[in-house]
Amino acid sequence: MRVIIKKDYDECSKWAADFVAYKIKRFHPTAEKSFVLGLPTGSTPLGMYHNLIKQNQAGKVSFENVVTFNMDEYIGLPPEHPQSYHYFMKENFFKHINIQQKNIHIPNGMTRDFEKECQDYETAIKKCGGVNLFIGGIGTDGHIAFNEPGSSLTSRTRIKTLRLDTIKSNARFFDNDMTRVPKTALTVGIGTIMDAEEVMIIATGKNKAEAIKHGIEGSVSHMWPISILQMHQHGIIVCDEEAVSLLQPETVNYFKEIENRTL
Ligand code: PGA
Fold first, then answer.
1. Segment 115-169, tens digit of pLDDT
2. Are 217 and 247 within 8 A, CB to CB?
3. Is the CB of 138 under 6 A from ligand 1?
4. Does the annotation mark 8 as catalytic?
5. Is pTM beyond 0.90 here?
6. How far is it, in rounded angstroms, from Cα 163 to Cα 174?
7. CA distances from 98 to 23, 60, 101, 137, 143 (A)
């Protein structure tokens, strides 16, 4: 696992955006062979999206032949609902870049047939040849996408009931009214994420420090879903100084030394 430790949120966002742009450019995507990105919502990736938009508008990276699969969507929120992830992605990323609408995939939380939707989502990912780079954030409890503690570490796209903590935390986006927060969501599974060629998780701020400690220094456990990244051949965690504040100093020094080595 690579652990990239940056000073603060802005530096993490820039590093993550540069990494995504580098990966896309190095792949040389074409209409026949697209680069496939897995994408998150949440407050963490906003800075990365902002940087990628700037690079796209400056002609430094193109999304024309990039296919995207979002991690999750609430059940029961229509795409035009300001708190739906469809809306979030359109407003914060897609409408600002040269991506083709047909290349965008987000689970349909308005479907009547959840099982079919989930199966079709997995099939669509496979048809594209799998995800080249899955990007994610983490929850304070170590969740990735809506895979909360206790989720199967080999889970696939499915319907999940959200934990009370997650509902409480997300109430800030619903006028602090917990009753308005959807209680279920469609989410890719941990197995779906782990199938990607490469996985990059971004974690910033003190409130992520405990999850980062369990994810990097703890054992692999379904109680801290982020810890599964230890089993990935190409896992990267991008975090700031606050997020690594509960790690042993030796752990921090080790990862910093490896990344900064110029020999
Ligand atoms: P955040 O959410 O980026 O808003 O902290 C991350 C998550 O819950 O996965």
1. 999 999 999 999 999 999 999 999 999 999 999 999 999 999 999 999 898 899 8
2. yes
3. yes
4. no
5. yes
6. 16
7. 17, 12, 9, 24, 31
